[in-house]
Amino acid sequence: MSTEAAYRLPLAGRLHPWTLVFGLFAVARQMLIPLLYWVVSGFSVFGTLLVLMFGIPSLLLVVARYWTFRYRVEEGELIVEQGILRHQERHIPLANIQEIRLEQNLIQRQLGIARADIETSTGGGVEASLALLSVHDIARLRRCVFEHRGEGAPDGGTPRSEAPAVAEVPLVRLGWPELLIAGLTSNGIFTLFLILGALLRFAEEWLPEAGRRALLRGIEATVRALGGQSTAMMLATLFLSITFLVLLSVAASGVMAVVRFYDFQLTEQGTALRRTYGLLTRHISSLSPARIQLLAIEQTPLRRLFGWASLRVDVAGVAYERQEEQQGRGVLVPLIRPAAAEALLARFMPGCVMAPGAWRKVSPLAVRRGILRRSVWLVGLTAAALWWWSWPYGLWPLLVGLPVIGLVSWLDYRARAYLPGARYWFVRQGWAGHAVYAVPVNNIQAVVVAQTPFDLRLGLATLILDTAGQTPVIIRDLPVAEACALGQQVARQVEGTSGRQAAGF
């Protein structure tokens, strides 16, 4: 069989029969209130009519979706069709597919079925959702998509779909101790707000009015009791309470990381990277390294202290929402040593090597700019202190804050640098939390040189390298001439590697 014929080899399928059962459970969950009323009313005629009026249309929709839903791969496209009265047929070019994510809960895992979400380079979230398919059918679809499109087209006489499955090469595997470290060293304080928000939402939706009033009375009594104490006792109580909440938040962050990334595995299968993780909900996604716009080695202050980092990826056209970020979809590896992360960069992107002694510093004027920028709030605080304590006692914010701002600005200047290369650009930043970005030159879409009022006064500029991903790479505090020269250099490199012109130059 010729290469063209193998590339056009079709693959077709439909939803798994378990889709009907899960659809019925979804309808029952939506019909919970009418069903409860039907039971409480002693199966009255009105309750029966209420259940039938709302339940039958939903059941018909579930059955219609199952019988009419079809998908197939042919002529370089994934085609999804559904509907009876309003027939829809969606054509998705295989070359535009960025990820095929598999998600399954505990029950679906036991049944061998899952939901497959298709994401493309056009962005806007999930382009198509195939729910539910057998895991075997999703694997066939994944192989067909990633191996029958341009970058993985067959190069011999045997169709790829008929060839043996490509073996997976393990790259990273994390057990629960590493995942616990990942959670404990993340910005766990923000987990506290997530927990409080979830508790408030639970109270609003499920607690009766009497329960909410009792809870508010308890909070009010606690505040009054705290206010009746001495100043020292009140401060000690507040300190202990905040410490307890912070420790609770950090512990919850560790547990959430274990649940979210349980049994994390990153493997390489042919031309695709495959991530598998999750305890309650299992996530499996395939990603082509050729679609990666940016790789970031990121360290929180705690991770930097203990020599850990995470590896994050930006994909063209994919914007992860807050809920998706909480599920770890924007994270390639949640915990890794920086040296191991650099080795993975070279594996994913050939020739992507950072030379330690070749980093270029930004302008030393960055220290002065940092002091000016960070002193804005300090001036306001000092003015308020002078109004409250008068001269000279009101100068304490300036005397205490100015040395701190100077030290932070100097540390920030030391941490920031960039490394231009023929095929990749590297940018590092952050003195407490640290990040190193690797950007392939041929992925750069636009080059921008910008100046703020502070920059104009000091003769500095900011160079922005924008890709098709969601995170622009920013190099601040460059001399204007150097920023313009670097922008022209990047534009010439883009033209030389991809044959196109980068916007902006």
UniProtKB/TrEMBL annotation:
<feature type="transmembrane region" description="Helical">
    <location>
        <begin position="395"/>
        <end position="413"/>
    </location>
</feature>
<feature type="transmembrane region" description="Helical">
    <location>
        <begin position="46"/>
        <end position="67"/>
    </location>
</feature>
<keyword id="KW-0812">Transmembrane</keyword>
<feature type="domain" description="YdbS-like PH">
    <location>
        <begin position="264"/>
        <end position="345"/>
    </location>
</feature>
<keyword id="KW-0472">Membrane</keyword>
<feature type="transmembrane region" description="Helical">
    <location>
        <begin position="371"/>
        <end position="389"/>
    </location>
</feature>
<dbReference type="Pfam" id="PF03703">
    <property type="entry name" value="bPH_2"/>
</dbReference>
<dbReference type="InterPro" id="IPR014529">
    <property type="entry name" value="UCP026631"/>
</dbReference>
<dbReference type="InterPro" id="IPR005182">
    <property type="entry name" value="YdbS-like_PH"/>
</dbReference>
<feature type="domain" description="YdbS-like PH">
    <location>
        <begin position="426"/>
        <end position="483"/>
    </location>
</feature>
<feature type="transmembrane region" description="Helical">
    <location>
        <begin position="20"/>
        <end position="40"/>
    </location>
</feature>
<feature type="transmembrane region" description="Helical">
    <location>
        <begin position="232"/>
        <end position="259"/>
    </location>
</feature>
<feature type="domain" description="YdbS-like PH">
    <location>
        <begin position="66"/>
        <end position="143"/>
    </location>
</feature>
<protein>
    <submittedName>
        <fullName>PH domain-containing protein</fullName>
    </submittedName>
</protein>
<feature type="transmembrane region" description="Helical">
    <location>
        <begin position="179"/>
        <end position="203"/>
    </location>
</feature>
<keyword id="KW-1133">Transmembrane helix</keyword>
